[in-house]
């Protein structure tokens, strides 16, 4: 058990996060924290002491300790003293432990302190040790291990027992020596005296306090604890502990400070690459105490050395300085170069190395440097130097830290290189103005630069064993754009035969130099990947060199090649997908093609897309029946011959019509599909099919196939393409069926030779066919029942039979909602308790309510005895709604016609009475009025001189009243005869009407100084004499109500686009009208002014309104007091025949 305290990764200074056994990663002390050292072979690793201050702290450690032991199959013993047995068990249960099961099977046992430590009334250490040893031996023999935890508060008031127990605790470590036993002692700090806690600290190698696991530096091994030199050894150990901890803290603080500063430089997102390198070099100079720090670019093959960055002052070492590599200390570093990693630093001084006196080497006394290999670029050297020889002798820690800095420099350089190349790659592929060919050529250039290989090429291979180079970069006689040749004896042949990319740095090492491909192309280094379009092989993307490569291709380079290959595959796939989608769109959107022509072209396109010679649309008339080939290509079958198939084993189309995704097989001969009739009769070996839905229900399948097996699986793009084709075909079929049903519905409803009952009967037949349901009903709601008005497919007697509306399903529910109700399976939705279900067995139902105006009339519905296998589609709901709307409209129209007929009768009666009144007014009322006027005139003529002043005034009042009475009677006669005495409506020239009215008003115009202007007025359809009355009344009013200024009147016309009406307006600048009086001015006999202010009868505007209404128009006024008025009315233009 002594390895149980080690961390999961074996590192020092970790919290006890993974429990006793790191191999199991199970938390024993999940709330504990704090650094502990791995114990290795220490024997004290199984003895823990928990020092706590309250029950929560106590059980937070003890419960996980017990739980882990039980989970591992160990026997756990709990000795309680401070808590009761009930409290302990409750705590264990709250911690997720099945206490009852553990007690029953013996894995858990609980004892009181009186049953263990104090057996016999007082503590006996030897007896306690014997008891513990016996329990441990028994548990280890039967279980996976043994662990004990004990509450030690029984020591509180017994000092002798405390001293004896401390001695006993030191012996426990020996008892626990082994792989299967641990002990956790529990001490309540608040209840036990300090001396006991001190003994606890001295006798336990590990303590848990304040949720922290602590390695006990004050632990005293048993040999020392009982030895004679214990006091002096204790003092020595404690003093040395203080010194060690202080020294370790200072070293740790220094190392941590350096690492934090290094991390701060590297992780700062606001620093640029150049700033990070500058800060890193400055930090290194300070850390190592050296004057100069720098980075140089090197190439040992050409003896090239150029300084890129320098930190510190040096006359001859500046950025851009080029020196032969052999004349620098860096030559030693390059010789230690270790491939792709940063090697350990090279440490040199003038005392050990003889260098030429060039480029300031005379001033370099101490040198610390390393090589930084960079993928896809020249290597670098990273170094620090000093002119002071005393600055040498670097510690191992400094050399390790310098290597860490070198790794950071390598990371930053490669990150910059990687980001630049990725940016170039992204900019290339994202260039919307560049063609695919231009992008490929640029990718080849980028790849050649990235991999350090001078040749790059992109090929397309063919099934006939040939290839063509689509694009090539670099100078190579055999590798040129447009080259076409057999793939035999080429590098591409090797690539296509391999399971993945090929990377060769030296052709001789892999045995290629004797190969015909090498003899032909001479490529010593080769790096290539295969390009696929979907699941099909398209060609290759290759890079090569006629010289070997010094180091292997890195993961970053492999990723870069993979990214280029993925982009090429994606782009090619998108190009092909766009081409097929474009072609399918052109086919489906061509208005000149019928559905059958579009379907045939789609089948041909799909056959080409999938490389399969057959394709077809299969229709399934009945769910359990056979499929009918509605349209097919690639069959040797007469076009007029019907082809039926029945894939009865759940394969081919039978599987496709039930699946939500396309169904496929590339070789049916190797599957259970080979037993199907379709395979046995037609030899259909490869198959790709998808379900066709009409609405939300299945119609059939769209499929493609071949009698030959396919050498590759169908790709996601191919499955998506057939799904898109299937969706379009389903949409077209649904639209075709819906259109045909609508055409028949319109034919039925528009047939003027058929009665309403006949139309309803035919609509019920049409609905049964459209919904594939046996029964149709037209029902009228009468109280709690529905009377059968019309029915099809049943033996119910029309006009007599009734259907109950209770308990509330079927028709009762239909009339309560605003949308159609469709039930696929009445029993499944709980409608089987309805009398309709019990009596007629209506397993499925589709209905909508019928209204008569604002009232609910009943419902039109369709049903079948059996449940329906598919849901009703949106198109079916829409069609039923059309039937319901038409019936509702017909019922409402019939009611409107009856109301209109009654209204016409009343209107005719009213007109007759009005005619009688008009006759009476024109004859019976006029005669007495003429008599009154005549006698008043005779009275004035004979006795005028004898009447005197008052008599003459009274006589004038009587004559004036008679005249006004005559004017009112004349106006009333005109008002009543607008409809009965008007002329037929015909084309009228409004300009002529306006001019004649202006001539009639010439005297008033001259007397008032009125100015009347008019725009050209349009021809209208009307009664010229009545329109003349309208203009005369409006113009006369405009003159009359002009106020103190001379009248200014303008007549205009405007055409309304909507309604094809003409708006005629008469605008004046007179006294205007109050807003609240603008409505009542059109009421007959309603006057806004007294007769003393303005004369008139109050009939003129009412007459205008009645005339405009006869012309099917409207009249209104826009006015403001003191700002004039504009009277406008609408008239209709002449019809095309009249104009």
Describe the structure.
The protein has a 7-stranded mixed sheet with strand order 3-2-4-5-1-6-7, with helices on both faces. The radius of gyration is 54 Å and the shape is elongated. With 1139 residues, it is an alpha+beta fold. It has 28 helices and 37 strands. The longest helix has 70 residues, at 874-943. This is histidine kinase. It catalyses: ATP + protein L-histidine = ADP + protein N-phospho-L-histidine.
Features of this protein?
41% helix; 37 strands; 1139 residues; 28 helices; alpha+beta; Beta-Lactamase; Rossmann fold; disordered N terminus; elongated; 6-stranded antiparallel β-sheet; 7-stranded mixed β-sheet; single chain
Number of domains: 7
CATH topology of the largest domain: Rossmann fold
Q: What is the H level of CATH, i.e. the homologous superfamily of the largest domain?
A: P-loop containing nucleotide triphosphate hydrolases
How many helical stretches?
A: 28
Q: Order of strands across the widest beta sheet?
A: 3-2-4-5-1-6-7
Distance between the termini: 114 Å
User: How is the biggest beta sheet arranged?
Assistant: 7 strands, mixed
The total strand number stands at 37
CATH architecture of the largest domain: 3-Layer(aba) Sandwich
Q: Output the CATH class name of the largest domain.
A: Alpha Beta
Helix content: 40-55%
Mean pLDDT: 80
Q: Structural class, judged by helices and strands?
A: alpha+beta
Oligomeric organization of the protein chains:
single chain
């Amino acid at each position: 058990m002594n390895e149980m305290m080690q961390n999961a990764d074996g590192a020092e200074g970790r919290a006890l996060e993974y429990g006793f056994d790191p191999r199991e990663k199970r938390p024993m002390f999940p709330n504990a924290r704090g650094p502990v050292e791995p114990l290795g072979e220490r024997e004290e690793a199984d003895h823990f002491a928990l020092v706590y201050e309250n029950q929560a702290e106590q059980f937070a450690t003890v419960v996980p300790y017990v739980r882990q032991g039980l989970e591992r199959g160990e026997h756990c013993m709990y000795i309680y003293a401070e808590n009761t047995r009930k409290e302990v068990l409750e705590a264990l249960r709250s911690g997720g432990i099945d206490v009852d099961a553990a007690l029953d099977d013996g894995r858990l046992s609980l004892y009181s302190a009186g049953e263990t430590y104090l057996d016999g009334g007082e503590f006996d250490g030897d007896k306690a040790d014997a008891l513990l040893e016996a329990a441990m031996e028994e548990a280890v023999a039967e279980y996976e291990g043994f662990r004990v935890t004990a509450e030690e508060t029984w020591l509180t008031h017994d000092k002798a027992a405390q001293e004896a127990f401390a001695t006993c605790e030191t012996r426990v470590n020996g008892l626990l020596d082994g792989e299967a036993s641990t002990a956790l002692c529990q001490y309540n700090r608040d209840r036990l005296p300090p001396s006991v806690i001190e003994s606890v600290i001295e006798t336990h190698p590990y303590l848990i306090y304040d949720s922290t696991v602590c390695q006990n530096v004050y632990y005293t091994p048993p040999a020392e604890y009982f030895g004679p030199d214990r006091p002096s050894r204790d003092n020595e150990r404690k003093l040395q502990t203080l010194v060690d901890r202080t020294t370790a803290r200072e070293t740790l603080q220094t190392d941590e400070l350096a690492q934090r500063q290094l991390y701060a430089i590297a992780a700062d997102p606001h620093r640029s690459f150049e700033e990070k390198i500058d800060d890193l070099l400055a930090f290194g100079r300070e850390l190592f105490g050296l004057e100069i720090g720098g980075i140089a670019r090197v190439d040992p093959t050409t003896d090239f050395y150029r300084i890129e960055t320098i930190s510190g002052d040096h006359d001859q070492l500046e950025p851009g300085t080029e020196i032969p590599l052999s004349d620098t200390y860096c030559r030693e570093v390059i010789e230690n170069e270790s491939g792709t990693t940063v090697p350990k630093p090279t440490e040199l001084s003038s005392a050990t190395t003889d260098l030429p006196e060039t480029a300031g080497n005379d001033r370099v006394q101490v040198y610390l440097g390393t090589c930084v290999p960079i993928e896809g670029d020249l290597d670098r050297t990273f170094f620090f130097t000093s002119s002071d020889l005393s600055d040498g002798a670097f510690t191992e820690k400094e050399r390790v830290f310098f290597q860490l800095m070198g790794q950071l420099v390598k990371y930053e350089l490669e990150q910059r290189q990687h980001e630049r190349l990725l940016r170039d790659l992204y900019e290339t592929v994202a260039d919307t103005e560049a063609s695919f060919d231009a992008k490929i050529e640029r990718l080849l250039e980028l790849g050649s630069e990235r991999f350090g290989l001078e040749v790059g090429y992109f090929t397309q291979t063919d099934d006939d064993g040939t290839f063509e180079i689509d694009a090539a970069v670099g100078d190579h006689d055999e590798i040129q754009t447009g080259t076409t040749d057999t793939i035999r004896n080429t590098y591409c042949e090797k690539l296509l035969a391999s399971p993945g990319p090929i990377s060769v740095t030296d052709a001789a090492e892999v045995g290629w130099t004797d190969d015909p491909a090498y003899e032909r192309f001479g490529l010593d280094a080769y790096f290539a990947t295969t390009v696929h379009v979907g699941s099909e092989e398209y060609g290759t993307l290759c890079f090569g060199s006629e010289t070997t490569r010094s180091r292997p291709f890195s993961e970053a380079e492999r990723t870069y090649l993979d990214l280029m290959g993925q982009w090429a595959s994606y782009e090619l796939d998108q190009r092909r997908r766009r081409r097929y989608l474009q072609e399918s769109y052109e086919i489906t959107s061509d208005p000149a093609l019928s559905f059958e022509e579009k379907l045939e072209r789609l089948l041909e396109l799909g056959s080409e897309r999938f490389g399969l010679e057959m394709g077809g649309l299969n229709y399934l008339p009945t769910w359990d029946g056979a499929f009918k080939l509605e349209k097919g290509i690639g069959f040797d079958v007469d076009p007029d011959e019907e082809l039926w198939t029945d894939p009865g084993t759940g394969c081919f189309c039978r599987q496709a019509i039930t699946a939500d995704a396309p169904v496929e097989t590339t070789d049916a001969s190797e599957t259970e599909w080979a037993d199907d009739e379709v395979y046995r009769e037609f030899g259909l070996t490869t198959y790709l099919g998808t379900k066709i839905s009409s609405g939300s229900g299945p119609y059939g399948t769209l499929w493609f196939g071949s009698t030959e097996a396919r050498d590759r699986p169908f790709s996601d793009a191919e499955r998506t393409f057939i799904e898109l084709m299937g969706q379009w075909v389903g949409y077209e079929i649904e639209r075709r069926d819906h259109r045909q049903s609508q055409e028949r519905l319109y034919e039925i409803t528009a047939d003027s030779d058929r009665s309403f009952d006949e139309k309803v009967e035919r609509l019920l037949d049409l609905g049964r066919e459209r919904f594939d349901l046996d029964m149709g009903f037209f029902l009228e709601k009468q109280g709690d029942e529905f009377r059968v008005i019309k029915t099809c497919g049943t033996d119910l007697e029309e006009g007599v039979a009734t259907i109950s509306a209770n308990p509330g399903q079927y028709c009762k529910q239909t009339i309560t909602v605003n949308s159609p109700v469709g039930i696929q399976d009445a029993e499944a939705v709980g409608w089987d308790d309805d009398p309709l279900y019990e009596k007629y067995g209506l397993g499925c139902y589709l209905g909508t309510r019928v209204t008569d105006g604002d009232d609910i009339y009943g419902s039109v519905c369709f049903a079948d005895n059996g449940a329906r296998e598919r849901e009703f589609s949106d198109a079916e709901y829409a069609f039923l709604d059309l039937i319901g709307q038409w019936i509702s409209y017909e019922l409402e129209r019939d009611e409107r016609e009856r109301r209109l007929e009654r209204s016409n009768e009343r209107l005719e009666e009213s007109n007759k009475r009005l005619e009688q009144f008009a006759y009476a007014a024109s004859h019976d009322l006029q005669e007495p009025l003429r008599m009154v006027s005549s006698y008043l005139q005779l009275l004035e003529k004979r006795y005028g001189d004898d009447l005197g002043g008052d008599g003459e005034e009274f006589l004038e009042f009587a004559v004036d009243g008679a005249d006004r009475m005559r004017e009112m009677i004349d106006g009333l006669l005109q008002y009543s005869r607008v409809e009965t005495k008007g002329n037929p409506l015909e084309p009228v020239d409004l300009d002529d009407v306006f001019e004649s009215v202006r001539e009639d008003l010439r005297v008033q115009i001259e007397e008032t100084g009125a100015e009347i202007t008019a725009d050209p007025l349009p021809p209208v359809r009307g009664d010229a004499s009545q329109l003349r009355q309208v203009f005369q009344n409006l113009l006369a009013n405009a003159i009359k109500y002009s106020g103190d200024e001379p009248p200014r009147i303008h007549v205009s016309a405007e055409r309304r686009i909507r309604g094809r009406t003409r708006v005629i307006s008469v605008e004046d600048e007179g006294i205007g009208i109050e807003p609240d009086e603008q409505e009542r001015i059109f009421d007959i006999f309603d006057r806004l002014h007294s007769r003393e202010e303005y004369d008139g009868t109050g009939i003129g505007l009412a007459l205008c309104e009645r005339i405009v209404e006869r012309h099917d128009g409207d009249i209104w006024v826009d006015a403001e007091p003191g700002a004039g008025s504009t009277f406008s009315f609408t008239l209709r233009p002449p019809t095309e025949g009249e104009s």
